[in-house]
Specification:
MetI-like fold, 299 residues, mainly alpha, elongated, 66% helix
Length: 299
């Protein structure tokens, strides 16, 4: 069976745009949203800071017994120092490194599991689809935050990798429902029926045809979900079930700063500000992608 008979784009008509052109139009439409471009620039700055964090001269976890404790922002310490004399700027940058890593990897795990689950459910349909969707309904009925706390408390040696895995394994249901709905629509399209008539394998149809044509909504959901996962990780760290000290994350920094709000408010302001700006940037980018990938917006 020749690959040319099974084109990756929807249908084989010459009036349809090639994949490269579709992405070019998406980028052109995305650039029209100034807030989305602003959010993209902010994310680029945060990612660059996180990557270059090891180049900072001060250590984020070592306690300097000679450093002034709860020192306000100054030329020596741009964001001041915390109750142990550690540089808040250094810890905030390293917090970005940890929080963004958790957000990206946990979201990648959730999107991967959800996409696979939803594609299988939507493609086969029938009793299997009904059973798989009832399983998702059961998971949605559980209090996810408490489930995460229980899973974290059961781990003997909590680490950042545990946080990533737990957050990924408890947040794949929404992507699964989204992909399942898109696959239900796509499987009735002519190019899928043609692939079936030509004897294409089920795995080939799902991976080669269905998933590439539902990737747009998945990308939008993934972008928005990274911000939500970062908030959830910060909440877990604030409660003591996320990233464990002395590793800095924005949530753990806020938890440690709550006892020093009267004497060192800067220890809470800067990690809280960067947390809010990061989530806001992801929301801006997600909104821009949702609009740019909407075919009605391109007209």
């Amino acid at each position: 069976m020749a690959d040319s008979a099974l084109p990756g784009s929807r249908g084989a008509g010459s009036d349809l745009l090639p994949v490269a052109t579709v992405w070019q139009l998406t980028w052109k439409q995305f650039r029209k949203h100034r807030l989305s471009i602003f959010g993209l620039y902010m994310l680029a700055v945060f990612l660059l800071a996180a990557l270059l964090a090891p180049l900072l001269p001060l250590d984020p976890v070592t306690v300097d017994l000679e450093a002034a404790r709860l020192s306000p922002p100054s030329a020596a310490h741009w964001f001041g120092t915390d109750h142990l004399g550690r540089d808040v700027f250094t810890r905030t940058v390293y917090g970005a490194r940890i929080s963004l890593s958790v957000g990206f990897l946990a979201t990648g795990l959730a999107i991967g599991l959800g996409t696979l689950f939803g594609a299988v459910s939507g493609f086969y349909g029938g009793r299997l689809d009904n059973l798989m969707m009832r399983f998702i309904d059961l998971l949605f009925s559980l209090p996810i935050l408490f489930l995460i706390i229980i899973l974290q408390s059961m781990v003997a040696n909590p680490s950042i990798y545990n946080v990533m895995i737990v957050l990924g394994l408890t947040s794949w249901m929404s992507p699964a429902r989204l992909v399942r709905g898109e696959v239900l629509k796509e499987r009735e399209m002519e190019y899928v029926q043609a692939s079936r008539a030509l004897g294409a394998e089920t795995r080939w149809i799902i991976l080669r045809h269905l998933l590439p044509n539902v990737i747009g909504p998945v990308i939008v959901m993934a972008t928005l979900r990274v911000g939500r996962v970062i908030i959830l990780e910060s909440a877990l760290s604030y409660l003591g079930f996320g990233v464990q000290p002395p590793d800095p994350s924005w949530g753990s920094m806020l938890a440690q700063a709550r006892e020093y709000l009267n004497t060192g408010i800067w220890t809470a302001v800067f990690p809280g500000l960067f947390l809010s700006l990061t989530v806001l940037a992801f929301n801006f980018v997600g909104d821009g992608l949702a609009s740019a990938m909407n075919p009605h917006e391109r007209k």
